[in-house]
Protein: Zn-dependent hydrolase, glyoxylase
Amino acid sequence: MDIQAIEQQILNGAWCFPNYAIYQVGGAAGGECYLIVSNSGSAALIDAGYAWDAPATLANIRRVLTDVGASHLEWLLLTHSHYDHAAGAGYLAGHMPGLKVACSAYAARVFSRPGALATMRTLNASEAYLHGLTDFEEVPASLTIDRVLEPGDTVRAADMDFTVIAAPGHTKCSIAFWCADRRFLVSCETGCVYAGPLDAAFRDVLGNPAPQGLEVMADPAYLVGYASSLDFIAREIDLHPDVLLVPHFGIMTGAAATSFLHAADYFSRYAADLIMQAHTAGASNDEVIAQFKAVFYNDYVQAIQPEAAFDLNASYLVPLVIRELSDAQ
Structure:
């Protein structure tokens, strides 16, 4: 299937392709949950969004399944354990008989720890409070994982065979999913987050413009591994996906998908150069974070990510780069 030759259609909130469609069904902005439905009516979920808005997510899922006549929703595939991707898993599994939850072995260990679930519960509540809610769905005290996934495993979901790809970098538990037959890649935040169109005035740390053909920005999200993130992005590029599911954005196809992957590689390296240049010049960690934020917390990102969340990620990302690259010297 040559997706590049097919005009992508977005119909009723779906990205439609010859054999399947993908719906963004998260109950609130920032809560990641995508529903893949094949033409035969088989369906699967990618991530589960927040818990606080899980009833709305469930309503969206049921509406789509009813509208398209889908009959079989078997798998919820989690890319990693962060609360905006996984906190709603318990609620969805508890309200959809037959739905099975799958994640990486590391994520399964995270979900088995009461302290980790308590942290998810706190973050979920904080997000609900930001939306003015006091009565909302909590993260459950436990989460049943029906299948633990290892790199190279195959999962049959929505009439597609997805191969599990290890993707440590954003978290230690991050994974991606690759359907070779459809050339469809479900990425994760290790591969960066879309950060809007590239400003024509952009210059790197040496004063050079971005490489010709680079049209978008990508925010790096390596919280536990810089080199491992670059390795994952390189493997994504080598796959040459025709369809790419970008976290906190949606679907890109053809040339747009390729452009984003190259932007992810470029801006991951640029961010590290920016951080190390400031650090080497004697800037404190707070000053380095401020310089990083001035570039990457742009107008587009401000519209989709709370400042506190960006600052928290930066507080992990900047010291990680300094530590990892200083040790490599």
Summary: The domain at 187-328 is CATH 3.60.15.10 (Metallo-beta-lactamase; Chain A).
